């Protein structure tokens, strides 16, 4: 059984779990190379930057962790990769201050978000989503950019996104080898950092039209 303590040790060792729904097995992964976003290398497409200036969403953190967790795993073409045990463990880590969510709201509707695990100055982004037909176009992208910028301002040193893919490559994702990743992770683990209470874009009105879909940050 994968409990919260084991899950935390897996991340601290530079790995992460994925549930294989078809075979009812949890695999532990250590990609080499590893995909990260450098805080000083974030690239924001011009159209998205312009949209963010209009503050289309209200951005919050840790207001709806369980709802974000569920939304990231529902209706996926590639199956669910978070087992019931893993979900319970992530919720416990959230209650203990190690797992966090960032949310995008349109009025009172949750239209996008992401979640991940924080240890020290490292954030391991797990998954993000936006909701089609609910006004969530660009919501997951805006949440991702707001998270990177807010953690940079808070002095974080590592933003892990696991794998490169088409969803996040546009944001300046780079790959480093596993040895370098683990060295940077080791230093980040012993560097205390507080999770920001507010995120960039938190003053947004949350009243623009949008469309979206569930995505993985690992799809990221």
* Strand content range: 25-35%
CATH topology: Aminopeptidase
> What fraction, in percent, of the residue positions are helical?
25-40%
Number of DSSP helical runs:
6
Give the C-alpha Rg.
16 Å
What is the CA-CA span between the terminal residues? 26 Å
Count every beta strand, where a strand is a DSSP E run of 2 or more residues.
Answer: 10
What CATH architecture label applies?
3-Layer(aba) Sandwich
Brief rundown of the structure:
With 220 residues, the protein is α+β, with helices and mostly antiparallel strands. The protein is 30% helix and 26% strand.
Provide an overview of this structure:
There is one protein chain. With 220 residues, the protein is α+β, with helices and mostly antiparallel strands. The protein has a single domain (4-27, 34-216), classed as 3-Layer(aba) Sandwich (Aminopeptidase), CATH 3.40.630.70. It has 6 helices and 10 strands. It has helices spanning 4-12, 46-53, 65-73, 84-95, 139-153, 178-189; strands at residues 16-20, 25-29, 34-37, 58-61, 99-106, 109-119, 122-130, 158-162, 173-176, 214-216. The strands form 2 sheets. Strands 3, 4, 5, 6, 7, 8, 9 and 10 form an 8-stranded mixed β-sheet that branches. It has a two-stranded antiparallel sheet with strand order 1-2. A hairpin with a 2-residue loop joins strand 5 (99-106) and strand 6 (109-119). Helix 1 (4-12) packs across helix 4. It is globular, with a radius of gyration of 16 Å. The model is unreliable at 205-216 (pLDDT under 50).
